[in-house]
Amino acid sequence: MERRVIIIGAGISGLLACKYTIQKGFNPVVFEAKSTIGDVWLKHIIQSSELHNPGKDLQFSDFDWPSPTGGGDRFPAHTDVFEYIKAYARKFGLLPHIQLNCQVTGIRYVGETEQEMEMGDRWGGTGTAFGSAGKWHVSVHKKETDSIEVHQAEFVILCIGCFIGLPNIPKLPPDQSIERFCGKVLDSRVYSALDDLGAAELIKRKRITVIGSGKSAVDIAAECADTNGAEYPCTIIQLTPHWVLPCVSLRGAHIGYLYSKRFAELSTHQPGESSLHRLLATVFSPLRWGISKFVECYLQWKLPLRKYGMIPNQSFLQDVSSGSIFRLPKNFYDKVKKGSIILKRSRGFGFVEEGVILKGEDRPIRTDLVILATGYKGDQKLANMFESPIFRKYVTHSSTSIIPLYRQTIHPRIPRLAVIGQAESMSNLPLFEIRCQWLAQFLDGKFELPSIKEMEKDVKAWEGHVERYGGRKFWMSCSGEIATEKNPTPDTEIFSCPICYNPLMRKGPPGLNLRAIHWSGFECEKCNKTYSSKDNYLDLTLVAGLKEYNEIKPAGTELFRIPLVSFLYERGWRQNFKRSGFPGPDEEFEMAQRYFKPAEGGLLVDVSCGSGLFSRRFAKSETYSGVIALDFSENMLRQCYDFIKSDSSLMEANLALVRADVARLPFASGSVDAVHAGAALHCWSSPSNAIAEITRVLRSGGVFVGTSFLRYNPATPRILRLLRHVLPTNYIFLTAEEIKDVCMLCGLTNYASEIRQSFIMFSVQKP
What we know:
Elements: E1 5-8, H1 12-23, E2 29-31, H2 39-43, H3 78-91, E3 98-99, E4 102-110, H4 114-119, E5 135-142, E6 147-153, E7 155-158, E8 184-187, H5 188-192, H6 196-203, E9 208-211, H7 215-228, E10 234-238, E11 244-245, H8 262-266, H9 275-302, H10 316-321, E12 326-327, H11 332-338, E13 341-345, E14 349-352, E15 355-358, E16 365-366, E17 369-372, H12 378-383, H13 389-395, E18 417-419, H14 428-443, H15 452-470, E19 505-507, H16 514-518, E20 521-524, E21 529-534, E22 537-539, H17 555-558, H18 563-573, H19 585-595, E23 603-607, H20 615-620, E24 626-631, H21 634-645, H22 648-651, E25 655-659, E26 672-677, H23 687-697, E27 698-709, H24 718-726, H25 736-745, E28 749-756, E29 759-765
Parallel strand pairs: 1-2, 1-7, 2-3, 7-18, 8-17, 9-10, 9-17, 10-13, 11-12, 22-25, 23-24, 23-26, 24-25, 26-27
Antiparallel strand pairs: 4-5, 5-6, 14-15, 15-16, 19-20, 20-21, 21-22, 27-29, 28-29
Main location: plastid
Family: Belongs to the methyltransferase superfamily.
GO molecular function: flavin adenine dinucleotide binding; N,N-dimethylaniline monooxygenase activity; NADP binding; S-adenosylmethionine-dependent methyltransferase activity
């Protein structure tokens, strides 16, 4: 059997993959789209930028930095890194394997159908690197001859990285879109690619606004300030300020050192940890927290963060865990003090003719040039490599990470392919090297992979681990060299004020799990109202916190607030629904899951969840990034919590309990991927208002699935149909046609339904 290996990309990860596969006897071919290896280090970093890693943290294990350009505690320039990479490639004879100016335009897997791959329970059929019958066809555009060639390989390693390619352009409303701006808008990578003379000419004597919170943004702002001074100050808009390190040491030691050693790993809980590790993590966790608070105090003392409103909402520990820490350029806050840099913090922005308008402000920032340093779409860039729409979906399936990978290397459902270079650390080179060593052993047949289900379970466990310590920004890519934002508004809280719909400010641990919600407080800055957890659910009703006012709902709603009814709901009450055609919870859940396929990996809200009969199933399925069990009944939510307590796995799941009104959902518009309403529609005081509200919170492509009792079933005699139409009732029973009509009138599409006697399950989608 042939064992041809193709590597796509000749950056650091591509060179490492090439070196270690050669050591195992392979003859890899590396395709690089640019004219040189390590192009990102030459053309896509600000000319004046220094790394925020010392050279010793960016060093190959078997190739030291040449003296005196790097190594040790020195912070090398990006040009030094570029020369170091080239020297590495020459030393280990990698250059003959690399074909430059060869852009891979697409890869296609042939030899096995998608159905055959779906049926298997082992990766590639056997769990080995070369065990399947398929192979990859790699289409390559050779720029020198302007021709397309198709190369075949039994294994492909994607090393394309995530810091160049598709810029993450913020999505803005039409009335504030980029097109409205009369000036010029550039992506940071375009600016970075300019030489010193070209960059200086572009920014000279111009009013410049930089949007971003990462290292690229502050480096560009500093460079603009050096060129124009206070006469033409550079404005930098930060949506999510991060903890930043000054260019000095704490008692001679870099303060980031506190989290860079093995001790830091011993103080964190990890999936599959031993009993000893669990004990050590529990014992050392307070110390880890204490170090974080100590560093925060030091940084606030050392830097004027409070003066300029740049104290981050998240902890230093969270920024370290998500890889968002970076070093400031030299004399950065001196430039701010002199007025050559103007710092602005905002929860959102838009464009008008004369410049940039910040959320909550009336006057725009007058601007000639806007530079967007808002990161790159690493997951979309990776997905675009595949010709198969199924593989594209696999890559972008998870909403919580760039790509869900087993051991950060293998996708459980894409055979004969590995991914190296998706960054998650403040120092990526050592991680890439470890992964390439592991991959080389796998290619050499030294071990087999576990089953697909076991790998997916492992991926989910590690995603939860990273979210636990990295917070809501844990999906952000980070790099020791280029720290940029993956999401233009990553600090936006999922919960919004039910009064004004502004995102709430959270004070407490991030996440959707019960513990995080219980220990957090929420505040609306606009309404000056606070919300908190009560009895392990978060109360986000309009009347939350009021003692003298108790809103009474219609009888159909109030019935389920009675403690006895809440207690009996899963203990006999719900089982009686079978008489009307309801298929039973297990089958009903499976039916809903089929309709929710387009929303997999996103956030699901189970409105009118009752005692959490389906919320718990959605959470345990691990199909969604988070599940919110939402109900107006306090007693139903208490019952839900009691059921959750009996299942230890649910206590750690991304499952939150929220009290809210379905007619006033506490979520921002377009922020929810899926909404489920089980046996609930007929209980709402106004189904049309509720469905309109569900439509508002659904994102484009989001799915709403509901079940209800129909006013009558197809076998009901006509005379009884008329009676049921006029007789008074505590519930609002609709016909199938009425349900469809109200969904369509609210702007939902792709209506589908299943009817059994008086039971209906319907599904609609937001266009």
